[in-house]
Design a protein that fits this description.
The protein is built from 6 helices and 11 strands. With 215 residues, the chain is an alpha/beta fold. It folds into 2 domains: 2-62, no CATH class; 65-214, Beta Barrel (L,D-transpeptidase catalytic domain-like), CATH 2.40.440. It is globular and about 50 Å long.
């Protein structure tokens, strides 16, 4: 009888222990679900004002680079950190030193808006507000397109997810909501990059570095 009582007590303790352990275990299905949801929306929820982005095709369209960035050999004698924009090639080189550079596809100024020169990075902004210049608004209005006076960062914002400002000019290196324009001359003078690429560059660039824009 004594043996039976001990066995019953051991069984009850074992069951209680399992119940406590179960209370402390997080449902792995729930964790996976939350993780997947975060990965699928992420910064896009920020860009869309916290509203869920329903179309994964739209997510891909505004984030992924249609032309992959490359680590390439680069032997020109410029300081590490320098950014070189090649208008003819429609590529941007971020010089890393030791004979290497990261090469990104870009969109440059269309005919009449392309420019060259040397500037310094003066400011960096996440989710930049777009304030189109008056002459741009007037020019587009003649085509029947009314531009806003100002537009906050978002999925429809043509500056994309990051902006790197060049000197005291109106020009920037920035993301885009039109990645199909990369590799082409379609901008109004700014240097466009895919959002994933401009975020990659933005994380490595500091204010004060030199940006050389050349033909």
């Amino acid at each position: 009888m004594k043996t039976l009582a001990i066995a019953l007590l051991a069984g009850l303790l074992s069951t209680a222990g399992a119940a406590v352990a179960a209370d402390n275990v997080v449902d792995p299905v729930e964790v996976a679900s939350l993780s997947s949801s975060t990965q699928k929306t992420g910064w896009l929820q920020v860009l869309s004002g916290g509203k869920p982005v329903k179309s994964e095709k739209k997510i891909a369209a505004v984030s992924r680079a249609p032309i992959a960035r490359e680590l390439v050999a680069f032997t020109e004698k410029v300081a590490p950190g320098t950014i070189i924009v090649d208008n003819s090639e429609r590529r941007l080189y971020h010089v890393l030193g030791s004979g290497l550079a990261m090469k990104y596809a870009i969109s440059v100024g269309r005919e009449g808006f392309i420019w060259t020169g040397s500037e310094k990075v003066t400011r960096k902004t996440e989710w930049p507000t777009w304030t189109p210049p008056e002459d741009m608004r007037a020019r587009e209005a003649k085509k029947g397109k009314i531009l806003p006076v100002s537009m906050k960062g978002g999925l429809e914002n043509p500056l994309g997810s990051r902006a790197i400002y060049l000197g005291s000019t109106i020009y920037r290196i920035h993301g885009t909501n039109q990645p199909s324009s990369l590799g082409k001359a379609q901008s109004s003078g700014c240097i466009r990059m895919a959002n994933e690429d401009v975020e990659h560059l933005y994380a490595q660039v500091t204010t004060g570095v030199t940006v050389i824009v050349r033909d």
